[in-house]
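hiii so my PI (J.) wants the whole complex modelled not just the main chain, which honestly fair. so below is everything: two entries, each one labled with what it is. i double checked the lines twice but i was tired so who knows lol
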Amino acid sequence: MALLQVDRMTHYFGGLQAVGSYSLRINPGEIHGLIGPNGAGKTTVFNLITGIHTPTEGGVFLEGRRLIGLRPHQIAALGLGRTFQNMLLWRHMTVLEHVKVAHYAQINYGLLSALLGSHRRYADEAFIEKNSLHLLDIFDVAHYADQLVANLPYGAQRRVEMARAMAIRPKILLLDEPTAGMTTEEMIQMIGIVRKIHEQFKVAILLIEHRLKFVMELCRFVQALVFGKVIAEGTPEEIRSNPKVIEAYLGSEDVS
Amino acid sequence: MEFFLQNVINALQWGSFYALIALGYSMVYSILMLFNFTHGDIFMTGAYIGFGVATALLILTASLALPGWLLLIVTIIISMILTSFLGIIVERVGYRPLRDAPRASAAITGLMIGIILETGNLAVLGAQRLSFPALIETVTYDLGGVYFTNKKILIVGVSLLMMLMLHAFIRKSRWGMAMRAMSYDYQVVPLMGVSLNIIAPMTFAIGSALAAAAGILYGMAYPVLDPYMGILLGWKSFVAAILGGRGSILGAALAGFMLGFIEIFTAMIFPSTFRDLIAYSIILLILTFRPYGFFGQPYSTQLRL
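here's the output for the full assembly
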């Protein structure tokens, strides 16, 4: 059984078809790439899978369980984590608080035991503190733990965001343009980070990227999306040499 | 000098009411981008619930002759819990269906629920004013010519205690952290496994509980309840929430007290009929120069400590 399975998912915004008959299968531990020009519908695919929008047609399944109809926080708690193109960090909160909030679904104590200071609360909070610092350490931002996230350099903010996404213990992680706005050097660093979390957490990854180098390095399987439809899929090499993909990225040959 | 100190105590007392109510406006606004215009009437309903609870307690425990302060504490706690349910109902019935509607629709809904609470109260309890039972004896202290009552100390003390508790809750608890995160963008936080439909009602519940506490404390100081008591106090506290800076907890509390000071000291200098006219002209002037309030920032409405 595939870890994440998307069957002929279609979505309309008003009369506009944003995603048309999109299908996907990711097995545990795989890294897949989704490429395409701006406005191709890549982020919409993520929003449909994570429950922000509900697809007009089609099905989404995580470990065989139907996700459509579930609310975003329920889907997240089932093990689907994501990052955002523009990060969406909480600027005036500390780095540690970011990761702690993402532990929310794993906490068992209630309001009453919080007020009474029960044993369970202390045990849970101690675990969360420890686990959060551990995660921050993996992403090499532990020394920023008590800083406001707004004060961090850009690359570090990206890593905080990934630590936050990993704190919900995802089985699959959706990365939306993790190298947006990065220099080539930072991008190469990011390749290392994605590899590291892939190996360390055995998490499957679906990533949206513009930069072909990033995709080629990391993915075994790539889909190219144009105007909401998959125009090509296969290994990175196949995608790179596919005439349709070249046309979508560079314009048609007739023009030149 | 004695006269001055006397007025400081009065200002602190009024500031406590404004601050407690303003906190509810500010918290709800930062999370749902919505001014809960029912809030003043939730304060009024909280005062009435306090009246009901206090009266019931007095009757039920008449034979035990419990001390007044104990009854007061129990009244405050029970009334806060009951009023928080009112807040949850208002969110569920009035605002949740309109979460993605234009904010003006939600504001109008808030005003309408407020009118329903006022007129519902009028219909059920009638037009006569009720007098809040005096749970504790008024004791007047004389400190070198400055007179103050135990009730004023109690009002300011209980308000400050509640603000400190709220501060700790928002700063440290998992729900408080989730509220702060939610106040950036309520679409994102659910993707971290936090349900908006837990956090939003909880925010209303906390705001309403604080308003109920303010209602009971108000009833202790001015023991006459009427269904429209929440309107003016609600609007003034709303002004405090804006003056403090949208989303700022510290700002709402400080601006609440500041409003108390401006009002009382205006009344000290000018005839009392001029009080609100001059006090709110001053505030208008302040907002002209600081349109985002003391702790507010342009384009930033997040919940801050």
